[in-house]
């Protein structure tokens, strides 16, 4: 029997709606069922009743903590009291309340102070904090770097071994992970969503191979025409592209799932080598990654975005 998805209730002070919305969006990318008042309440519903019901039905209560939320008088305190009553019914080793701090603040409630806090501040700690939340509520999820960086061969090998990605040279024993792919057609464009990484991929990609510079321009063109209705596609990082790598050939002679088009055998990534004159390329036909000069015309593009 398939395990049911955890249900997460997000509690926050209304002054913190921006960061609460961001958490909601990022957790949903991983297929998590979120109850968030801004999206979950319907017009005409008794909001007090629905909130109380949602808290009692939730698997986890995510408390967004700020100076406002811990000091203010408001319904956020009522939500927390209800959650603490439910926590009292759980065994001591059972996680129910996840205290998530968005700034330097200290909860007055003693029982909340006894719980280990997750910090998502400053901004540089947000992704690390998100990983910690997912480790509790969805341990199979992966958070992959989406910002381009400069990688030496040693750094690339370290990253590949960290995630246990398969690479015929750098990690030949790598097993990868079990994806949760969901193929869709949006506005006549074919996409594949991976609920484990929270990424949305083009099912195919560029019809022709191109240089690195042309790949950057091709992504711009993709966003200009709003592929699948979105304008925020990017060239994948090495982490993101290697997440597609399968230890065995599944798509003819390619180490990638059969859901993806066969033509994009080798794809550019946005990550650069140390000299800044070469970029990392992922080869699904060879089953690994390597660096190549920007002027090389042999590689394709498969765009990605946050799903």
The CATH architecture of the largest domain comes to: Roll
Which regions contain 5 or more consecutive residues with pLDDT less than 50? Answer: none
Structural class comes to: alpha/beta
Radius of gyration: 22 Å
Distance separating the two termini: 26 Å
What is the element string, with H for helices and E for strands?
A: EHEHHEHHEHEHHEEEHHEEEE
pLDDT averaged over residues: 94
Concise summary:
The chain has 307 residues and is α/β, with parallel strands linked by helices.
Report on this structure.
The structure is a single chain. By secondary structure, the chain is of the alpha/beta class. 29% of the residues lie in helices and 19% in strands. It folds into two domains: 7-137, 3-Layer(aba) Sandwich (Rossmann fold), CATH 3.40.50; 153-306, Mannose-Binding Protein A, Chain A (Roll). The chain has helices spanning 17-28, 37-40, 47-57, 67-71, 75-87, 110-113, 126-137, 153-163, 212-224, 238-242, and strands at residues 7-11, 33-35, 60-65, 97-101, 118-119, 181-186, 189-194, 199-202, 266-272, 278-283, 288-293, 304-306. The strands form three sheets. It has a five-stranded parallel beta sheet, sandwiched between helices. A four-stranded antiparallel beta sheet has the order 6-7-8-12, with no helix packed on it. It is elongated, with a radius of gyration of 22 Å.
């Amino acid at each position: 029997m398939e395990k049911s998805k955890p249900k997460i209730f997000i509690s926050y002070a209304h002054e913190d709606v921006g960061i609460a919305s961001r958490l909601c969006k990022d957790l949903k990318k991983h297929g998590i069922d979120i109850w968030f008042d801004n999206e979950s309440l319907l017009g005409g519903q008794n909001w007090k009743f629905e909130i109380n019901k949602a808290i009692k039905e939730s698997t986890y209560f995510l408390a967004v903590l700020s100076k406002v939320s811990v000091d203010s008088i408001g319904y956020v305190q009522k939500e927390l009291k209800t959650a603490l009553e439910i926590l009292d019914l759980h065994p001591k080793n059972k996680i129910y309340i996840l205290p998530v701090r968005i700034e330097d603040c200290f909860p007055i409630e003693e029982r909340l102070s006894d719980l280990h806090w997750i910090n998502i501040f400053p901004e540089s700690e947000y992704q690390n904090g998100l990983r910690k939340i997912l480790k509790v509520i969805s341990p199979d999820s992966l958070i992959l770097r989406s910002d381009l960086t400069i990688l030496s061969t040693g750094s690339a090998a370290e990253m590949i071994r960290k995630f246990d990605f398969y690479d015929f040279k750098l990690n030949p024993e790598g097993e990868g992970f079990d994806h949760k792919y969901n193929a869709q057609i949006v506005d006549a464009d074919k996409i594949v969503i991976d609920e484990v990484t929270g990424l949305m991929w083009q099912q195919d990609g560029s019809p022709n191979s191109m240089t690195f510079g042309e790949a950057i321009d091709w992504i711009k063109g993709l966003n200009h025409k709003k592929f699948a209705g979105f304008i925020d596609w990017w060239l994948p990082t090495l982490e993101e592209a290697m997440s597609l790598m399968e230890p065995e050939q599944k798509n003819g002679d390619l180490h990638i799932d059969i859901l993806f088009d066969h033509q994009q055998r080798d794809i550019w990534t946005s990550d650069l080598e140390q000299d800044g004159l070469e970029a990392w390329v992922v080869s699904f036909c060879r089953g690994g990654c390597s660096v190549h000069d920007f002027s090389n015309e042999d590689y394709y593009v498969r765009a990605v975005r946050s799903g």
